[in-house]
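Human: I would love a firmer grasp of how sequence relates to backbone shape in proteins. Could you go through the record with me and say what the backbone is doing? Here is the record:
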Amino acid sequence: MRMEELKSSLEKAIAPVYLIEGEDAYLREGAVKILQNRCLSAPDLNFSVFEGSYARQNPEEIVEILMQYPFMSEKRVVLLRDYNPTATDLKNKTLSAYFSNPSQTSLLIIANGNACEPLKKMPNVTVVDCGKADMAVVVRYIQVTLKRENLIITTKNAQLLADYCRLEMTKVSGEVEKLISYCHGAGEVLEEDIEALVTKESDYQIYELTEKVAQKKNGEAYIILTDMLSRSNDHQKLFTSLYYHFRRLFFCSMSGKTPAVLAKELGVKEYAVKKSIEQSKKFTPKRLKEINDMFCKYDGDFKSGRISVSQALTLCMGKIMQ
């Protein structure tokens, strides 16, 4: 299930083991808190936290704690962070017996940033997907959070804020807090407030830069590129990000596949693919091939030591904007 579905699912039943996984740390922590608030009282007596590395080395100790009865609480809760056991680890007799017949008075929460396929195959494990939220979820979060502070925001401006943060909930939540303080008493969060306060994620700036290139607004494109160079301490990473972005556009322009299929093949979220397909239509496939060839040339130039990576980036983008 998605993290947004977790709270309502607890009204029907509470599973004995939850595997909370996904790249969005904000959503992962939110899911952990939902489970704790629903099941845990007297945390000093009923709550234990272990790092995954310790749990892998001491599975019997973890199970022993899970088998203890809670004290003045609905359940005893054990939280394992970054627990990524192998299939061999899970064959441990004590551990496999617990997953087959878990205690109904305990709750095991496993919070991982990366997927763990062996855990997903274990019995009685409920997976909570905390991957990047979609636009509708992020917009709803922004509007609801601002409404609690007597502030309104249009859907268009909420989408702008979400785009600037590239749907990263940790980033979104921080920017919303800044806007609440900045706009206190104003009644509404306006586009100019977002422009003045919100720091654009590099992914959004790459998208914005590409838009200006497609529109042949070279002056505005140079302003964005200069800002990106001044903000980044790793120009090689920036070069690579731009290279991969234009390569994805070329792939999207040629594939003819659905966003869902492309997202799986490229290992990115469907929302990102939809944006790439939309943007790729602003170039011809021939032009995208030429741009990729330019990146390939300048990639070779700086890797061979003929020019610096900053020069490679500036010269490459200059050629693209000619």
Q: What stands out?
A: Residues 3-129 form a domain with the Rossmann fold fold (CATH 3.40.50.300). The mean pLDDT is 86.
